[in-house]
Amino acid sequence: MVLAPLGAYWAPTSGDAPSTTADGVADYVERWRSANAVPGAAVAVIDGGETTVHLSGVDGDGNELAIDTGFLIGSVAKTFTSTLILQHVTEGRIALDEPAATYLDWWGAEDVSVRMLLTHTSGLTAADGLAVSERYTTGDHAVEAAARDLAQSGTAGVYEYSSANYLMLGAIIEAVSGRSYAAELTDQVLEPLGMEATAATAADAAGPAPGHRIWSGRWARAYDVRLDDSGAPYGYVMSTLEELATYAEAHLNGGLVDDELRSLAWSMQERNGVSSGYGFGWRVEQDGDSLVVHHTGATPGYFAHLWLVPEEDRAVIVLANAYSEARAPSLVAAAADISAITAGGSRHVSAGEPLLTWLPAGLLVLGLSGIAAGVALGAGRLGRWWLWACLAAIVITAVVLAPVLIGATWRTIGIWTPDLYAGLLAAGSGCGFALLAALTRFRRPQGALTEPAPDAHGDTRGQ
Questions:
Q1: Does residue 224 share a domain with residue 160?
Q2: Angle between the 354-378 and 385-405 helix axes, to the nearest 10 degrees?
Q3: How would DSSP label each residue in 336-401?
Q4: What is the distance between the alpha carbons of residues 168 and 152, in angstroms, rounded to a whole number?
Q5: Which of 35, 69, 128, 387 has a CB 3.0–4.6 Å from the CB of 438, allowing a cystine?
Q6: Is 152 left (phi over 0), alpha (psi -120 to 50) or beta?
Q7: CA dist 413 → 75, 297, 357, 405 (Å)
Q8: 104-110-114 Cα angle (round to 5)
Q9: Residues 315 and 369 in one domain
């Protein structure tokens, strides 16, 4: 692991020994990376204008991580999109309460405003977003093409987090600027901040190295990802630890958005918990006496988290070249834990999601058991009760999986949770084989399953 205390904007230091707090963060990062099977993690802490970076592990090509190593940042990109929208609001080109259809004449939902898209209350559901995600299309019109394919299946006015909202906002940015989303982001945010390595198109991204998908919460497997131009407004942007630290400082210092609009963006426009909610492109939480604004981000193979505590002039950036839904609770907890350690506290690494961790292995066992049962049934070694056991296993598995799989297609499951995908195939194949074997055996003519009936003299010979 490399521990490097750095000054603001990554200036060299005198080489003094790291502080106890820095040691605590470094120790946490090592334990967190090991617990979550993450091959490489990059963390930056900005505290009172001073920046400390912690680099641990390697990238997908086996090279040691550096502050300029590229990572996909997932939904952290939504903060870019909200920043662009609010800049256009300041310039008078967009109004928050104007219908989105004002800017997109092909969008038929007249009751959906720009504000509703920013706060995930447009009626666009998570399933609507998944239906047009991971298209991996390129070109200047990729965002608009994906947005035109969106279908609104929810109820306007009801909060439901969905990347579809930010895809629509990206299309609005293109419509009012007359340029591609990537070009507008580059001119309005990236170039002014000197973020030359950050890219929103596959053509501009030098990399990144392969990320990793974590199987059963334990084993990282390389996954060669690429940028999806159509997904840039909500998740497919590449950046580096160094440049995200610059971006975080710009937000803390008020250099990107008008102060009044920034206050709105960092307030709970929609509550989704007792002390948490969503603003304009930012999750908002009350952590004791401090307001926290942050956003997590995940793509297949990468995880990112940008955490700001404005009142304490603190920011934490966490980047990992691996992602798993089974490890999501632990991955997400890191930024808050590191912020607490920086403030003088202590934290333990959080656990993952038990159900998703063990479910793929359980499904594999179920599939193998089904195959064994099918063979035994075909050989006549098991009774009729196995038919009901097979049916019960299928029903119970479906009930357990239903909350996990709602709105997900087979393609989505295969991309995001390959271990679950393999487990489902194994369980489906095994249970199906056992069920078919049971039905085949117990639907035979009754006489085929009984001893021949004796004749009038009790003799069965010759039958």
A1: yes
A2: 150
A3: HHHHHHHTT---PPPP--HHHHHHHHHHHHHHHHHHHHHHHHHTT-S-THHHHHHHHHHHHHHHHH
A4: 11
A5: 387
A6: beta
A7: 18, 18, 15, 8
A8: 60
A9: no
Cα 136 to Cα 200: distance, rounded to the nearest angstrom: 12
String of b and e for 383-420 (b: at least 16 CB within 10 Å)? eeebbebbeebbeebeeebeeebeebeeebbbbbbbbb
Among residues 322, 342, 362, the one where a domain terminates is: 342
- Range of 119's domain? 2-342
Flag whether 442 is in a domain: yes
pLDDT tens-digit series, residues 418-450: 998 898 888 888 888 887 887 787 775 544 444
Residues 98, 95: Cα–Cα separation, whole Å: 5
**Tokens at 268, concatenated:** 């709970």
Would you list the DSSP string of 18-43?
A: PPHHHHHHHHHHHHHHHHTT-SEEEE
CATH of the domain at 138: 3.40.710.10
Cα–Cα distance between 425 and 408 in angstroms, integer?
Answer: 15
Residues 16 and 152 in one domain: yes
Residue 456 belongs to some domain of the structure: no
pLDDT (0 to 100) of residue 8? 33
Do 294 and 441 fall into the same domain? Answer: no
**Burial zone of 62 (CB within 10 Å; 0-12 exposed, 13-18 middle, 19+ buried):** exposed
Give the count of domains, the chain.
2
Structure tokens at 176: 């009012």
Tell me the C-alpha distance between 117 and 321, whole Å: 29
Q: What is the pLDDT of residue 404?
A: 58
Q: With beta carbons less than 8 A apart as the criterion, state whether 377 and 442 touch.
A: no
Full-model pTM = 0.88
- Considering the domain architecture, whether residues 255 and 383 belong to the same structural domain is answered as no
The answer to whether residue 453 is domain-embedded is: no
Whether 460 is covered by a domain: the verdict is no
Say whether both 148 and 57 belong to one domain.
yes
pLDDT of residue 437: 80
